Amino acid sequence: EGAVTVGELAKLIKREPSEIIKKLLFLGIMATINQEIDTDAIELVASDFGVEVVVKEPVDEEALDMLIEEADPAKLQERPPIVTIMGHVDHGKTTLLDAIRETNVTAQEAGGITQHIGAYQVEVSGKKITFLDTPGHEAFTTMRARGAQVTDITVLVVAADDGVMPQTVEAINHAKAANVPIIVAVNKMDKPDANPDRVRQELSEYGLISEEWGGDTIFVPLSAKQRTGLDQLLEMILLVAEMAELKADPTARPRGTVIEAELDKGRGPVATVLVQNGTMRVGDIVVAGTTFGRVRAMVNDKGRRVKEAGPSYPVEILGLNDVPSAGDLFVVYDDERKARSLAEKRIAKHRQEQLGVQSRVTLEDLYKQI
Ligand code: GDP
Ligand code: MG
Fold first, then answer.
1. Which of 88, 95, 133 maximizes ligand 1 atoms within 8 Å of its Cβ, making it the mutation to test the pocket?
2. Which residues have C-beta within 8 Å of that of residue 15, sequence separation ≥ 6?
3. Residue 190 marked ligand-binding
4. Secondary structure element (H or E) that encloses residue 309, with its range
5. Pocket of ligand 1, candidates 193, 225, 228, 230: which has the most ligand atoms within 8 Å of its Cβ, to mutate?
6. Is 134 annotated as a binding residue?
7. Are the beta carbons of 108 and 262 closer than 8 angstroms?
8. Phi-psi region of 192 (alpha: psi -120 to 50; beta: other; left: phi over 0)
9. Could you tell me the pTM of the whole model?
10. Ligand 1 atom showing the smallest separation from residue 96 Cα
11. Of 35, 39, 102, 151, which has fewest CB within 10 angstroms of its CB?
12. What Cα–Cα distance (Å) separates residue 151 from each residue in 210, 256, 285?
């Protein structure tokens, strides 16, 4: 991060490499033209030449303005929780996600093709829950590395016959770092050697003390395979969501995060996005990362075409000029020309970043604070 060679820096600040090397020597750093120098040294050298290298981020100003738009508390409405499932390999994440999806399709939907779009919604007692279908670890590591926060609640799956394993601990750390509440799903309760108390004991060492033991972590024993305990899990998710008072303004400027994206032979770039604020509509002009375009069509997780998608709704969008990356933010624009110009500026910035000069404040950093 922030690594730039002497030669690159020279080019960037329009000086001779020899001048840079001299300055570095002055700072006690022996360097050759192809040597990488760290951010601090870059800043010192640049400021010696009267150049501000720490970019104050002129690039995304317009987008920032929009993201910082004051939320109007009067317009905030409850939104569905966005849930990520994490846990050690083979503890039953995929089985659980499939079981929840399949046992919660309404009769009307059952005829339709449930297509995989990286996220899906279920309805429980009249309330919706959005599950991210992407591997939880990926959702956390890739997307959070990009500054996107797309999880409200983590379901930590721990196999009752296996207990806490390395990826269990990793998942706990991710969730804690992101300040996301954890619900423990003690899976594989159908197995003869299931030992839920051992799971409780082991997890207590990581600060997850079950309610039965006087703590405040919810543990739900279940069997994803036999599909028992799923209703309790869903109810607990709704309970935790209620306590978190998750809200969004459906009338705000639509924005959210790209969950996954690919180039489809017939349909062109297809991106699954999670709307996090506002309501996205067909015809909207969006910028997603370094891509942009007018939304030509939207498809929901049931494979149905939809005209709009509100907060916490996952949809596939068609119409982008290129394939964005998972974790990219998207924002809806009023003006196609501005959208194009922002996307182009971002491409330029991206190139610059690849050169190694990283600006201190990125759009993502600011987004995190909202
Ligand atoms: P993942 O790696 O966490 O996604 O785990 P999978 O969902 O692929 O499950 C790993 C294995 O555990 C598979 O063979 C599943 O059939 C099995 N499995 C998952 N849930 C249960 C359960 O509740 N009971 C039993 N007995 N096996 C399960
Ligand atoms: Mg799996």
1. 95
2. 49
3. yes
4. strand 308-309
5. 225
6. yes
7. no
8. alpha
9. 0.77
10. 7
11. 102
12. 22, 12, 25
Tell me if 91 is assigned to a ligand binding site: yes
Tell me if 267 sits within 8 A of 276, measured CB to CB: no
| CA distances from residue 196 to 160, 199, 201, 220, 223 in whole angstroms, order as listed | 5, 5, 9, 10, 12
Ligand 1 atom with least separation from CA of 95: 7
What is the rounded CA–CA span in Å between residue 207 and residue 25?
50
Residue pLDDT, tens place only, 243-271: 999 999 999 889 899 999 999 999 999 99
User: How many other C-beta atoms lie within 10 A of the C-beta of residue 75?
Assistant: 12
- Distant-in-sequence, close-in-space partners of 55: CB < 8 Å, separation ≥ 6: 357, 359, 360
- 3-state secondary structure (DSSP) of residue 275: strand
User: Does ipTM surpass 0.95 in this model?
Assistant: yes
- 28: how many CB neighbours lie within 10 A of its CB? 7
